[in-house]
Q: What sequence folds into this?
């Protein structure tokens, strides 16, 4: 199905510049850069704001939420080391932009959003663009046990701690990427499931996310 917007030369050029900018910021994974270069981020914006779509900034999407900054999307995607066919749980669908980037990397994405208005919007927009993820509405802080285990789990909102229940839904060898901290700033954390009982935790750079709200969250 053709989408209502067009991916014209001006936006394609702006996207190429964004990719070059992300390289200067230290994103090195060519597959991630290619994925960012493919997803038309302006499709997630009202036409009035297309001039903002390829700036490296987060932007409001309603209900007090934001489409993530491209650098953050690239950074988290790079940490996930997606292989084609990976089953990925994304917690915090938001606009669905990150979902599309994961799908361009070859992931089979299960994505969950707790804000109904955002969920209702995104389940229409993404399939219209040709991105057929598995969409869920509800509290993702508990994961989605019915579809576990996952090769990778990505949390796109700031959590107060790493929910134990998410670790249980990770395959051995799997990776969880989650920002953890207080309401103001969070450290990006990756947890690798080394065996049934062993987990390796690495703390990385500081970010600022909207809060993860739910049973295993704020
Ligand atoms: N990566 C997304 C994008 O590119 O548009 C942006 C995600 S936005 C920063 C974080 C999203 O997480 C918000 O839409 C918020 O409603 C959602 N969220 C917060 N807590 C959640 C929870 N417990 N379960 C599911 N979604 C949650």
A:
């Amino acid at each position: 199905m053709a989408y209502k917007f067009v991916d014209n030369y001006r936006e394609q050029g702006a996207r190429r510049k964004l990719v070059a900018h992300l390289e200067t910021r230290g994103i090195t994974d060519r597959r991630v850069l290619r994925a960012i270069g493919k997803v038309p981020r302006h499709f997630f914006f009202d036409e009035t704001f297309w001039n903002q779509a390829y700036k490296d900034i987060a932007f409001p999407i309603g209900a007090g939420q934001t489409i993530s900054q491209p650098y953050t999307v690239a950074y988290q995607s790079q940490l996930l080391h997606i292989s084609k066919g990976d089953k990925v749980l994304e917690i915090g669908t938001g606009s669905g932009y990150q979902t599309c980037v994961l799908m361009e990397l070859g992931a089979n994405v299960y994505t969950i959003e707790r804000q109904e208005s955002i969920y209702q919007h995104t389940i229409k927009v993404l399939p219209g663009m040709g991105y057929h993820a598995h969409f869920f509405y509800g509290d993702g802080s508990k994961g989605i046990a019915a579809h576990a285990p996952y090769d990778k789990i990505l949390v796109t909102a700031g959590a107060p701690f790493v929910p134990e229940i998410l670790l249980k839904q990770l395959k051995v060898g799997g990776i969880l990427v989650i920002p953890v901290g207080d309401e103001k700033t969070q450290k990006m954390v990756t947890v690798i499931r080394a065996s049934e009982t062993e987990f390796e935790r690495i703390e990385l750079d500081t970010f600022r996310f909207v809060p993860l709200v739910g049973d295993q969250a704020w």
Summary: The chain has six helices and nine strands. Helices lie at 9-24, 30-38, 70-80, 97-104, 116-129, 164-168. Residues 65-68, 73, 91-92, 94-95, 97-98, 112-115, 118, 139-141, 156-157, 209-210, 212-214, 217 surround S-adenosylmethionine (CB under 6 Å). The beta strands are 59-62, 65-67, 87-91, 108-113, 134-137, 150-155, 170-181, 186-193, 199-207.
